[in-house]
Amino acid sequence: MSAHPSVVDDVRAARPLFDKCGRMVRSLRISVTDRCNLRCTYCLPLGTEFRRADELLSWSDVVCVVRVACGLGVDHVRLTGGEPLVRPGLSDLVARLKEETGVREVALTTNGVLLDRHAVSLAKAGLDRLTVSVDSLRPERFRAITCRGSLADVWRGIQRASDAGLRPLKINVVVISGMNDDEIDAWADLTRDHDLVVRFLELMPVGEGAAPGLVQRYVNLTQVRRRLTAELGLVPTEGPRGNGPARYWRVPGARGVVGFITPISDGYCGTCSRFRLTAVGELRPCLGHDLGVPLRDAIQARDEATIAVGFARAAAMKPAGHRFAEGAVTKLRMSRIGG
Ligand code: SAM
């Protein structure tokens, strides 16, 4: 892709970058690998094939694209995957992003399996925020959902992260009917004595989440929140800093809070400022559509002008919102897009 200079000038002059609906481009989620050490049944089926290591963007590639993105107004980067901690040297990437790009915040989403080993180096590297995905409080069920994970390893990692100062600690729970929807009250109870931010997420028809047997197991979390409000007296609260889509409530007197991420029952596309970069360098403006701008060649050529134009093109193609309620699905797997 070659960039006409006047287009580049237009992009630069357009800082901060807005999409066609007037939403500012502020947040970039980066899938650093599509590999994962778990096989959560709704996300990554057994037998999935992964990209070769030499196909992935290098750390220098990622630093380059984040530097350009920051020049266009992005101030928040989240590293995700796949499982980001299976890729060696993730703390080095965090340190480089903090030192070399001007980004304000670097966050990480992980399944926590390897967190015990990496929490201290991530904190030292300057990681600002951490989210750990944990879909069950029950060890045997956790193993069944993930096909191979140990809940004890994850709790050890969470404790280590908390000791290393990576707080507030957010826990993401994707709620699926017949999988873990009977644990919602137990999670809410956990926040009474623990300073945790437990966020319930609605299952989206993205990748494996769109499989025929799964779509019907979607749980409407706005209804769950209304039930919990009636039964436990939840009160709305500020929640932790961050620019995510969660809305927060507190069980009266609890140390922690519960959050609800409800893309389908109570959508937030109107304020979405997120873009996603796949591990092989495709820029995706919306999780709900299979749309993207290939930037790999420009990134590897360090062609910052073309990367900037790519962001402008992605902003121009960002849809007003997803169409999940009308039956639309996203084909590419969550682990490739960067969940
Ligand atoms: N491995 C990391 C982790 O477990 O957090 C990062 C990648 S994972 C794809 C990110 C998040 O996406 C996890 O919380 C996972 O549960 C969630 N997720 C995967 N498929 C989903 C779907 N179809 N709908 C909603 N959330 C989904």
Question: What do these coordinates show?
Answer:
A 12-stranded mixed sheet has the order 7-8-9-6-5-4-3-2-1-10-11-12. The chain has helices at 5-13, 59-71, 90-100, 115-125, 139-146, 151-163, 184-193, 212-215, 221-232, 296-300, 304-317, 334-337, and strands at residues 27-31, 76-80, 105-110, 129-133, 169-175, 196-202, 235-237, 247-250, 257-261, 274-277, 282-284, 293-294. The protein is of the alpha/beta class and 339 residues long. It is built from 12 helices and 12 strands. Helix 7 links the parallel strand 5 and strand 6 (196-202). 47% of the residues are buried. Helix 1 crosses helix 11 (304-317) and helix 2 (59-71) packs parallel to helix 3. The protein is globular and about 55 Å long. S-adenosylmethionine binds next to strand 3, strand 5 and helix 12.
Bound molecules: S-adenosylmethionine
Radius of gyration over all CA atoms, rounded: 19 Å
User: How would you classify the helix and strand content by structural class?
Assistant: alpha/beta
Strand order of the largest sheet: 7-8-9-6-5-4-3-2-1-10-11-12
3D shape: globular
Q: Could you estimate the helical fraction of the residues in percent?
A: 25-40%
How far do the termini sit from each other? 27 Å
